[in-house]
Amino acid sequence: MATVHGNPFQLHKAGRDTEETWFTRLDPRAKLLGILTFVITGAILTSTDLLLAALVLAAALAAASRVSAWNLAKAYIVALPFILLASVSLFIFTGPVQGANMVIRVSTCVLALLVLVNGTETFDLFLGLRRLKVPAVLTTLVMLTYRYVLLISEELDRMRIARKARGFSGGKSLLDRYGLRVLSYTAGMLLVRSSARADNIYEGLKMRGFREDMAAWRRRTMASADFAFLGLFLAASGALITIQLGVVP
Amino acid sequence: MHIPDGLMDPTVAAIGLIEFAAIVSVAIVVSRRSLREKDLPRVAMLSAGIFVAQMLNFPIGGGTTGHLVGGALFAIMVGPTFAIIGMTVILLIQALMFGDGGITAFGLNALNMAIIAPLVGWGVFNLMKPLVGRTGRIGQGVSVGTAAWASVFVAAAACAAEMAVSYAISGGTYGIAATVSVPAMLGFHAVIGVGEAAISAGVVTYLEHVSPETFSRRAAANPSSSGRKGVLRSTTLRASGAVLLVLALALPFYFLYAAEGRDGLEQTMEDAGVTEGAQLANSPFTYGQNYFGALFSGIIGFVAVSLAMTGIMRALDGRRAADEM
Amino acid sequence: MLEAESVGFVYEDGTVALDKVSLVMEEGEKVALVGPNGAGKSTLLHLIAGFRTPFSGKVVVSGKSLDSSSADLVRRDLGLVFQDPDDQVFMPTVEEDVAFGPRNLGLDDIDRRVTDALKSTGIEDLARRRPHRLSHGMKKRVAIAGVLAMDPKMLLLDEPTSGLDPRARKDLVRLLKEMDRTMLIATHDLEAASEIVDRVVVLNVGIVMQGTMAELVAARDVLESAGLEMPPLPRLFRLLEARGFPTNEMPVSMEQAVAELSKVIEGGDVRVRAHRGVQERKRAETGVPHPDLEIDRRKAQN
């Protein structure tokens, strides 16, 4: 179910200075841990009541965090095909309850994740990964790749404009063989140009003492607000799981 | 095919995570031999390139667009080990930057796009190379294209299978019934695969012409890597190894399905009568007794296979380097 | 501080990049490395920074001999500012990027270092901004700040003024001029170099000449063969000299030029049968009060 992945708007957003809200100021560790737990919880809920409760919590988070609703909506739409396919098929094959549950469950998880992602500096999330014991090779590559993606997309924009300036308007259909060829040449050219810079950038990093592992950056300590947030979500998740697993009707 | 959270059955998702973690760890261990610190920027640059390339959408008619996955391209350019790592990096960034693809579903997404796609692409490419080798540029284009198409198709099939198994073992709470998931995924991606094939072939052709040393098919600089010799020299064997690995990945899901799943259609008939009106449907954790048995044996079988694969992969990478010297 | 002895280097495709290059720099010296494009200036800088191993000769930085194992250690004493700031600037915000170097090196007092570096490059108010959205000139300053924050013993700058608009260029020149640090600047911007450095090394694969800037501008054949343009100030005085208006020493910086001119103006000797262009410039210099000229005139009067 391929749709537009990471459309260019979101890339440019990464370049813009984000406005600060209480949510963006929270310690990324608290956000990551809290929301992650919540998402995992949400994914294993199957009772409609619990699911609705989770959805309400997620929606409340979204509203309170002041993350742009427009961004949330745009990203949500990316997941929509899967959501619809799954819930409609469940609706037909298993029953309306399951169909509804599916929509609610996936929406809840997606919403929570999107709030986290849109309201936190991406780089901090990468560092959070390292904290979670993801191997250094991966996290270093992730950080480097992220940096390069921003560079390459600028390069791509320039190439696209240059292409248009020379009258290219193809690539509009799969049957456009010439267009596809140009597209792939563009891609190839991009890789060539980018690789030439890769070595320079490596040297630039080495010049500033970089070794393979990105050490922890923010020496921030968690404040009470951070603990409160974390506590809230851990508690909510705990409650939901307990009810789901055990005891209930 | 970035699957969001909450769609797949938690057990399926868990298996996906375990398999993914195992394979990617293997890949990291194997790569350490040939990945020097100064290679990091190049691999990252390639990941970045494919990341951006993934955002180039091509319309496939009917108003929908498809986009490049890039697993096959990656593997053909720098070998399966780096491709697995690189594609994982791409998926991580997509998840953390855009929320594309879920967290609990990350294992499955990575399995499909970062492991199965590159392995299949690489395997098919190497299997085809000797067959069309003599036809030069066209032959290469055909092999790359076919490999790319196959990588997308098989990845989609895996995704469909995961959905179907989720559906079956959860009695209709998670997943998508096979009758829907299989045609939908396969049909859609059969078409997308064409775009992938064309673009991948185009890029490889372009690079071969313009600048073959850019991401040369150098996997390693040290030919002395492994003790396995002789029998693993054959390209066919290498490629078969890759395909074997993909099949091995399916084993746990098969075990799971065999233990718990029932025929989709029949089951839904029963369920329709049973679950309507019930509030708490099926808690996945209270399923039958052979549940854990199947899970366990599946995992053990899988770990055994992947340990064997480590040996083979290590040899493959070393062998590749030696052959390309 | 730096001792390069008979360094040689060859590119992958076989062309010779550097040939028997020898260079000695004392602490506190500011030296310009000039030459045409492809002369090997960048290569030499990168080599000194330990990114390439010389084929022949050796390099000693601050007493430490440079080889593949000591490269990391030697680099701690150096600060190489790349030609393209995008190659160097990395973190999401300016202040994090400036802190990147010190953090990697495990230095202490990072916050103070960052603030000082930002202040000395004049970009404190950009601290929370995203670097890759800034203008080229600002990005260069971020790169320089990032290097300064590591407090290196010696700065290596690769074409620092390239791509800058006149204002930014002027600011950067002033910054480097006022900075009290050993520096080696690779550039083909002679005008900027003459404001900053004491000594000049002309490089064209091999060393063509070493000397003061005044000596360089006097050596017309060297300028010619190195594809360099004489900067406007010396050129002006050369033209004046040709019209019977000699100077004792060829001024290369604005201050020197002003000093020379004020001497002449005070002496009242302005007999020049110059053509229009020079005349207009003279008029501008004596008629309309130029700030530097004003100050010097008053100084000479007192």
Provide a descriptive summary of the structure in words.
The complex is a heterotrimer of chains A (249), B (325) and C (302). Chain A is mainly alpha-helical and 249 residues long. In chain A, 76% of the residues lie in helices and 0% in strands. The radius of gyration of chain A is 22 Å and the shape is globular. Chain A starts with 7 loop residues before the first helix and ends with a helix. The N terminus of chain A is likely disordered. About 17% of the residues of chain B have low confidence. The longest helix of chain B is centred in the C-terminal third of the chain and has 35 residues. The radius of gyration of chain B is 20 Å and the shape is globular. Helices cover 72% and strands 2% of the residues of chain B. In chain B, strands 1-2 form a two-stranded antiparallel sheet. Chain B contains 10 helices and 2 strands; from the N terminus they run ααββαααααααα. Chain B is mostly helical and 325 residues long. The two termini of chain B are 38 Å apart. By secondary structure, chain C is α/β, with parallel strands linked by helices. Chain C is 42% helix and 20% strand. In chain C, the strands form 2 sheets. A 6-stranded mixed β-sheet of chain C has the order 6-7-8-3-9-10, sandwiched between helices. In chain C, strands 2-1-4-5 form a 4-stranded antiparallel β-sheet, covered by helices on one side. In chain C, β7, α6 and β8 form a beta-alpha-beta unit. Classes of the chains: A mainly alpha (249), B mainly alpha (325), C alpha/beta (302). Chains in contact: A-B, A-C. At the A-B interface, α1, α3, α5, α6 and α7 of A face α1, α2, β1, β2 and α4 of B.
